[in-house]
Amino acid sequence: MRAPIGDFDNARPAPDCLDELTGPVAAALRAWRGPVPADQLVYVDTDPAVADTAAFVEHYGPTLLDESANCVVVAGRRGETTTLAACVVKSATRVDVNGVVRKHLGARKASFAPMDTATGETGMEYGGITPVGLPADWALLVDAAVVDTEWVLVGSGRRRGKLIVPGKAFAQLPGAIVLEGLGLPLA
């Protein structure tokens, strides 16, 4: 199989790679429902040493910057209550944590969740967190630009490997809320 974007040596339908994914991601693919069939999600094997966006794009090609997204875990706090959520924005942008995220979560303060919280709560590796397989009670805030992109490269739950997902599929993920302006230009 050839990947729909990028130049990867090993691309396969994600449901055929469940043993290479974390438990939560594999479970989400097994339970996948909706207008975009699960076999349209593609798993590509990648070098874990270049999993972070800048290194990944340098290694696999600069055109992927416009076709990739980052998934980050945020924590919104109001009083003694902390709410965890995930945000998906294009890799060439940053999450508007103190504007869109804070307001949407109804939080007085919002910030990126600590690494141990993000990995512990998701069951995924830092640098590979994906919106596929997040905890069911989380909000998943997705920038509209991600949904409007034909194919999007995103983490697979591990630092090794990525998923290539039709952009419109992000809107069908559990807890997904599509928002304009979630991703801000990098300063």
Characteristics:
YbaK protein; aminoacyl-tRNA deacylase activity; 187 residues; YbaK/aa-tRNA-synth-assoc-dom; four-stranded antiparallel sheet; alpha+beta; globular
User: CATH first level: which class?
Assistant: Alpha Beta
Number of domains: 1
Oligomerization: single chain
User: Which outline best applies?
Assistant: globular
Helix and strand sequence: EHEHEEEHEHEHEEEE
How many helices in DSSP terms? 5
Low-confidence stretches: none
Q: Can you count the beta strands?
A: 11
Largest β-sheet summary: 5 strands, mixed
CATH topology: YbaK protein
State the share of residues found in helices, binned by percent: 10-25%
Strand fraction equals 25-35%
State Rg: 15 Å
Major sheet: arrangement of strands: 6-3-4-7-10
For the record, the CATH architecture stands as Alpha-Beta Complex
Structural class: alpha+beta
Chain-averaged pLDDT: 95
InterPro entries: YbaK/aa-tRNA-synt-asso_dom_sf (IPR036754), YbaK/aa-tRNA-synth-assoc-dom (IPR007214)
Domain YbaK/aminoacyl-tRNA synthetase-associated: 48-170
Protein name: YbaK/aminoacyl-tRNA synthetase-associated domain-containing protein
GO molecular function, one term: aminoacyl-tRNA deacylase activity
